[in-house]
Amino acid sequence: MSKISKNASFTILLQDLEKMLSAVAEVRSNLQSLQKDWDEVKAKVSSSTPISHVLTPEDVVVSKQALQGLAIEADQMKTLLPRVINQKFVSASTKLNKLESDLEKAMKEIDELRMEVAHWKTQAETAVTDVQREKRERLELRVDVQELTSQLSQQSEFCSSLGAACCTLLWRVSRQEETIHDIVTGARSVEFLELVSTSVQSYLSAYKDDQWPDQRTDEAIFIVALCGVATNIAASALGREQLASNSQGRQLIDTFVTFVGEAPLNKSANMKVLMLMTLFNISINQKGVKYLQAKPGLMPILAWHVKEEHNHECRANTLRLLLSLVSDEASGLRLMHELKENLPLSVLQQLTTNPQAEVRDLALDLLMDIRRFDSEQ
């Protein structure tokens, strides 16, 4: 029972009790008045004064029998009224005691609720304080992150600029045979090959699904210079042997093949030209050509590149690589079948009329090899 309902019940009970007490008082007053009148009547009757001299115009003559009935009723009311009043009083008292007990219990519950509210209020204030502290700390961390991001961006730009400058110089120097020998046999050759692979992979992952950056940026110049150094390494016999023999060199080959297949067309031509030239130079090596021929999915990538790439240098290097791969006697037949499945002869025939002489001549050579293969079957 709620506090409000208990108070309402208690108020109603008090009002009923007050009404009963008022009724009892009224009955008692009427009884006293009736007794007084009765006493006066008896006094007048017992006196010797004639009744005609006793009565006044306001008096009423009542028969003795009616008066006796009224006296009997008055006696009955004296007997029954205390019982009725006592029963109602006892019932009201019981209800009142119950209400007082319920009220005490409700007050106790209210006190407990107040204590619980005070406890949770304290907890809430503590939580608000903690949240405000965390917000301040988070704001400070955000400011620190912004500062670190700005510093990192500046450092990245500086590293890209420095890397672009250094690798461009290395690219020019690596045109000398002595420099290639020093790079390949040096203590840092493995780390350099890993650097080239990792840098190209990161560049491709960062931009292949996003807007391809301008090729004049320091980052792009850095990647192009690394690819140029790799191309110069593959141009030497010692460099080709190193790339085809160790795991870092083969990882570089895989990275270049993936880049050719996933980089956007007509936007990364300067990088692809160097990578395709690197792969062609590696195909001159016996170990290198076997590794390329055994690589799954290479022929579909090269065939797709011939069909879709419009840069004439990329097309020329792709055709040159295809000619090198299918000319090997060991795996040439298998690769020729795979090439015919992915590159229609109509595409090669169309390329034989290309305005670029290099593309035109290479497409004609590849078409003649395919026809020669068909005639021998």
UniProtKB/TrEMBL annotation:
<protein>
    <submittedName>
        <fullName>Heat shock factor 2-binding protein-like</fullName>
    </submittedName>
</protein>
<feature type="coiled-coil region">
    <location>
        <begin position="89"/>
        <end position="151"/>
    </location>
</feature>
<dbReference type="InterPro" id="IPR016024">
    <property type="entry name" value="ARM-type_fold"/>
</dbReference>
<keyword id="KW-0175">Coiled coil</keyword>
<dbReference type="InterPro" id="IPR039584">
    <property type="entry name" value="HSF2BP"/>
</dbReference>
<keyword id="KW-0346">Stress response</keyword>
<dbReference type="InterPro" id="IPR011989">
    <property type="entry name" value="ARM-like"/>
</dbReference>
<dbReference type="GO" id="GO:0005829">
    <property type="term" value="C:cytosol"/>
</dbReference>
<feature type="coiled-coil region">
    <location>
        <begin position="17"/>
        <end position="44"/>
    </location>
</feature>
